[in-house]
Design goal:
- The chain is about 30% helix and about 20% strand.
- The strands form two sheets. Strands 3-2-1-4-5-12 form a six-stranded parallel β-sheet, with helices on both faces.
- The model has no long low-confidence stretch (mean pLDDT about 95).
- The protein is built from six helices and twelve strands.
- It has about 240 residues and is of the alpha/beta class.
- Helix 2 crosses helix 3 and helix 4 packs across helix 5.
- The longest helix is centred in the middle third of the chain and has 14 residues.
- Strand 4, helix 3 and strand 5 form a beta-alpha-beta unit.
- Bound molecules: NADP nicotinamide-adenine-dinucleotide phosphate (NAP).
- The site of NADP nicotinamide-adenine-dinucleotide phosphate has 24 residues, from strand 2, helix 2 and helix 3.
């Protein structure tokens, strides 16, 4: 019987790898959002399951014994759907989420309930660095008086959706020095970030702190009522326990 690790995050990778190393039968799942995901030494499937029914069929067909959901904290529909299907089918389910970031005394963060709210705080003429991905880019249409720079991992083949901005291609992780250098060169006034948590992508927030750049922090979506782990070792132990 197999443990399914819903991944797409650094921690999902670590958890799947640790389970594999401990000889648990594990299958990692990626949505296929990134064109060239980093290869890993763990059996991996790529692509959506085909909605709730497809996911339910998959669980049965593949003999999935437990689901460890380590998707991104903003992959809210995947988490809600997976939790509901597992609950309905009696498949043990655990959600791993990294703790959210919190502002320190030297940070200038504005919490945002949704992307559209950024426009209430940012003055016309500002240069805004969007570290929030392409999927939600359309939600910044009301920042028409600002210049927008949206960073992407993969080359984008379609034009930027607004006249007032551009894509910037960059492959993480980025060091604090690299982020400082970039924000200075591009004269960034505001940084918009999803509260993803985790150490790897905190460097942009350290750079913003160092340069005194204002940050719009998009708050996390709400969670379903599920078993939640925020420590990687706890999540691994849970999976080994249900497997054993
Ligand atoms: P989402 O809106 O919650 O899910 C959209 C659909 O993508 C799901 O219904 C499912 O398709 C498919 N999917 C999502 N995660 C999957 C996985 N691990 N394996 C197989 N299919 C998956 O998700 P999203 O926000 O687009 O995120 C997609 C992936 O990118 C996730 O794996 C997430 O961990 C990663 N990611 C997301 C963000 C973010 O900011 N949202 C940031 C970094 C990484 P079906 O209905 O066909 O099964």
């Amino acid at each position: 019987m197999t443990i399914l690790v819903l991944s797409g995050t650094r921690e999902g990778r670590e958890i799947a790898q640790a389970l594999h190393a401990r000889r648990a039968r594990v299958l990692a799942s990626l949505a296929g959002a990134t064109r060239n995901p980093r290869p890993q030494d763990v059996p991996t499937r790529i692509g959506g399951f085909g909605g709730a029914d497809g996911f339910a069929d998959f669980l049965v067909r593949e003999g999935i014994r437990a689901v460890l959901d380590a998707t991104h904290p903003f992959a809210a529909s995947m988490t809600a759907r997976s939790a509901a299907v597992c609950h309905r089918m009696g498949v043990p389910y655990c959600l791993f989420q990294r703790p959210p970031w919190g502002a320190g005394p030297k940070d200038d963060w504005t919490p945002l309930a949704k992307e559209e709210d950024a426009a209430h705080h940012i003055r016309a003429g500002a240069t805004v660095f969007l570290a929030t991905g392409r999927q939600t880019l359309h939600r910044y249409a009301n920042l028409a008086e600002c210049y927008l720079i949206c960073r992407q991992i993969d080359e984008v083949n379609t034009p930027f959706p607004f006249p007032n901005g551009e894509y910037l291609i960059g492959n993480p992780p980025f060091s604090v020095e690299e982020e400082v250098d970039l924000f200075q060169k591009r004269k960034i006034d505001w940084l918009i970030v999803k509260n993803a948590g985790g150490a790897a992508s905190f460097s942009k927030l350290e750079a913003a702190r160092y340069l005194g750049i204002k940050v719009g922090m998009i708050e996390r979506p709400g969670l379903p009522d599920v078993l939640l782990k925020s420590d990687i070792e706890d999540a691994i132990s849970w999976a080994l326990h249900v497997d054993g």
